[in-house]
Amino acid sequence: MTIQGDQTTMSELAQQLGATRPAFAAYNAREDLHAHDPNALLLFVAELRLGVDDIGVFASNALTDHSNDKKCDMVAVTPERNKVVVAQGFEALAEKNGAPANKASDLNTAVSWLLTGPLSEVPEKLRSAATEVRAALNDKKVSEFEIWYVHNLPTSKNVQGELNQAVKSAEAALSRYFPSADVDVRALEIGRDQIDADYQQSNAPILVSESRSFSIPGGFEVQGAGWKAYSTAIRLVDIRDLWANHGVSLMSPNVRDYLGVVKKSGNINHGIKETAKSEPDNFAIYNNGITVLTNNYEVNVASKTIVANGVGIVNGGQTTGAVGEMPAADVKELEDARVMARFVTCTDPVVLDNIVRYNNTQNKVEATDFRSGDAVQTRLRQQFVDVPDAEYRGGRRGGSTDAISRSRSLLSDSSVAQSLAAFHGNPNLAYNETRTIWESDGVYASTFREGLTAKHVVFTQSLLVAVDEAKRVVSRIPEAGRTDAQKKQAQFFSTRGSNHLVVAAVAAGLETIVGGPIADRYSLRFKGKVSPTQAATKWAPMLQVVLPFTGQLTDATDQGLKSRDKVAAAIANFTAMVEAVRSANTGPFDSFAAAVEWDGK
Fold first, then answer.
1. C-alpha to C-alpha distance for 440 and 435, rounded to whole angstroms
2. Does the N terminus or the C terminus of the chain have fewer Cβ atoms within 10 A?
3. Distance between the two ends of the chain, CA-based, in angstroms?
């Protein structure tokens, strides 16, 4: 890590950024991080992105900054996330247009020494890191290789150009020295805007930042280390007004969006509305109340008000949404109706995370709920806005509309997770351990990789849909009317997990099918804007050619795909058959290839 200028005093730039950016304000206050100067900023980013619990232990193992570090400040191997991170850092003391590009080019040197230099010649400080990385690659424990350039300045094209060269160097080294490793390589320029975004994402962001005054009858406050909370009651009309202005943005710290209303007596949200309408005076004692997360709050006893600086509903989202969606005609009786409310402010990130978790366990919370707010799911939801006829909630159950309905365009979380796992070589995980994908940090990270795009999700999920459709087609044929080939297909598809195995087998043979090398299978996608339904039809002609070879996969299904050796052998036999018939089926294969694109094509 390099700090340009005097390292003994806080820079003017650091003070400026701390005054305007929450991430840098938090960074400047972290004495435990600055004990590792000049690598404090690098460690701060590692903490945000890798979920580091003990920064001291992590620093002692991961930092390689040394006079003979071969241009490498940090090497982190995170087995639970199947990731290797090679990083270089730079912290400027004064404002500039961008970070020096030569620091990014230094990463070429770092990658070379880490992956290809004879271990006997690698500097001692870097040797243990190189040994660990190479062992993880040889053991096929690594799925991602990331190259970071961390700094406190704006990003620039010059830096990105140098990082692209580092990626090429890493890909070449991995291909030559670790040919059996299936690793995605990517480079990240992590400047101050990205650091700010990472920080906000990691801190249960309160998206509604306005200051809001609430009328209260009184209340009491309790405090702890790094937090305080004020318990009171607020008017339902104030909640309805908040919802009218901000909608589901109020739910930013909540793992669940508003689930909507079904007009059944057993539906909690319908009951909330009916209670508010029919017994407004008793609402406060019938309802469990809400928890409001704020950046800060002030209570004025004289005026009987509480002013919240920022509003996020961490618990009570269904109450908020149900009251907010009440028709105007039903609101007349709400003037004096109140709900119990607890206003909470917290500066401890660990406690803050637990506030979100423990305030969302009164009803059953699925593993997907707790993934719904992470960066990958947030980005995917944003990207799916541009995908035709598709809806993806990314772990969030429910939407902003006042109805519970399953849209035909909805891609379910489990289907997406299963298709990704199967497509990328883990059909057993897709079939037998879907929940593990969401519950296990390592499995989740290797399935929902950081560079995952909505277009790739459409690509993999539509293959699973197309395979399922082929299965339905052959099953509809009366047994007496099936050909021998159709009988074999029907028999194969009758086995558990067969559809996931086909997805894995087709994915394994894609280089043959498209007629070219695919360096990063996570970049595969259909050209243009394609809906999931349209995407499934693009798979169909090619599947008709390869599905007769499903007999090669039968041996792998006898243990429910649990034998990795059998699965691997079966897929190898399948892809060999695809290779054998490629030249005789150029029509459907070439048509499919023409519809597909990927990075580096």
1. 8
2. C
3. 35
